[in-house]
Amino acid sequence: MIATFHQCDVFTDRLFGGNPLAVVPDADGLDSATMQAFAREMNCSESAFVFHPRDPRAACRVRIFTPGRELPFAGHPTIGTAYTLHRLGLLDARSFSFEMEAGLIPVRREGSRFWLTPPVPTLGDALGEPAALARALGIDAAAVSEGARIVGSFLCVRVWSLEALANVDPDRAALRGILERRIADGNLLLFFFDSGRAWVRMFADIAEGIGEDPATGSAVAPMLHALAASGALALQMQGVEIEQGRWIDRRSTLYARLSWAGSDISSIEVGGDCVHAFSSEIAL
Q1: What is the CATH number of the domain that holds 65?
Q2: Does the annotation count 243 as an active-site position?
């Protein structure tokens, strides 16, 4: 089978920025092993594969693979796949849903920017031992907030300065000494937040084979819920701008829109721009 694929840079308005994504727009007939091998060959954070939907409410079904494994949902593949299908003239609707392993993911198009509504993450308890956590992250104890917690699939850690964020160097072995292994080896989301802007670094789960991620759309909702739980997010704040990828030379910009029900976040949208990089073919 000769498969056409398209690579775009997601959460950026310039080539060679953002997070690269490979999209196979006609993946019917590909099995899981082949998709995993393709994702490993592309070596992007994720690759996306588009199928005819099983659910009649969905525009299409999308499966997502990192170089290490399949994911039930991820943000930059959702945005990048929507952009690619629209660019190819295969999806012209302004509002639609993708069928993913995590369920139906709503997507909207506003001009050239796409917005997704992520699944609501589960809010875990705050973790103790901020000093030990800071040491395992390679930064001073005073640089870490006491409100670190698991939200969804991310260990969310707020730091107090951009300098601290720049100096983060996770020691997974040290993290295993203070946390359950699944957490210590999992997604580490660190962020500095100030006046409606956030600067983010995300070190992906070891099993995904990614390392530090240039842009992580699925991390936006966990970060915002963590901030809200700690009282750091102003009530009724409508929008947040997020920068990621600065320290690996892949600057990315993500946008978040928030809706509120009283003092609780009722919904979040994550949006961003994309740039087409190239198209090619591969024998699968």
Answers
A1: 3.10.310.10
A2: no
* φ/ψ of residue 225, rounded to 5: -65, -35
What does the alpha-carbon distance between residue 148 and residue 111 come to, in Å, rounded to a whole number? Answer: 37
Beta strands in the chain (DSSP E): 2-10, 19-24, 46-51, 60-65, 70-71, 95-100, 103-110, 113-116, 123-126, 149-151, 154-158, 187-194, 197-203, 212-213, 239-244, 252-261, 264-272, 274-283
Query: pTM for the whole thing?
Result: 0.96
174-223 pLDDT tens trace: 999 999 999 999 999 999 999 999 999 999 999 999 999 999 999 999 99
Q: Using CA atoms, how far apart are residues 221 and 270, in angstroms rounded to an integer?
A: 8
Residue 261 located in a structural domain: no
Range of the domain at 63: 2-116+273-283
Catalytic option among 46, 99, 212, 269: 46
Q: How many whole angstroms separate alpha carbon 174 and alpha carbon 196?
A: 32
